[in-house]
């Protein structure tokens, strides 16, 4: 078997709110709560397990999601409709903009806990087939 990421735990103040927020933006389903976790599974089988922890114990993390052009359009429309601040860069220097890195589109936003979320349509370092 090749090595694959199976799941990761995302700390939150309210696991239901956080799971619902991200699932809504990405067009995913919120899974059934089990133990302290509310899972959201991505299309490649990686599960994001949201866990409620005390607010002071949350270490802000970064999560990037690769989407198709169509999925990006839908997710970006949801970000804008929800009036979630977004940026073209991870440092927030370009508010209200998207980027076009690696020939695609990308945008950064934060979830209700301050985690940095990113949606992109091309992986970092992507080159069109045949381009040199």
Automatic annotation (TrEMBL):
Tell me, what's a Pfam family for it?
Glyoxalase
* Domain VOC residue range list: 4-122
Which superkingdom?
Bacteria
InterPro entries membership: Glyas_Bleomycin-R_OHBP_Dase, Glyas_Fos-R_dOase_dom, VOC_core, Xdiol_ring_cleave_dOase_1/2
Q: Which UniProt keywords apply?
A: Aromatic hydrocarbons catabolism, Dioxygenase, Iron, Metal-binding, Oxidoreductase
Cofactor(s) it depends on: Fe(2+)
The record's similarity note reads: Belongs to the extradiol ring-cleavage dioxygenase family.
Q: What is this protein called?
A: VOC family protein
State the organism named in the record. Answer: Streptomyces virginiae
């Amino acid at each position: 078997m090749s090595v694959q990421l199976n799941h990761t735990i995302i700390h939150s103040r309210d696991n239901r709110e956080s799971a619902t927020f991200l699932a809504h933006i990405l067009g995913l389903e919120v899974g059934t709560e089990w133990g302290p976790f509310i899972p959201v599974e991505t299309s490649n089988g990686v599960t994001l397990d949201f866990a409620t922890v005390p607010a002071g114990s949350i270490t802000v993390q970064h999560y990037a999601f690769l989407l198709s052009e169509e999925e990006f359009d839908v997710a970006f429309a949801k970000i804008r409709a929800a009036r979630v601040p977004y940026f073209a860069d991870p440092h927030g220097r370009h508010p209200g903009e998207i980027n076009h890195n690696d020939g695609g589109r990308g945008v950064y936003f934060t979830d209700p806990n301050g985690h940095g979320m990113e949606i992109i349509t091309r992986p970092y370092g992507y080159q069109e087939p045949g381009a040199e």
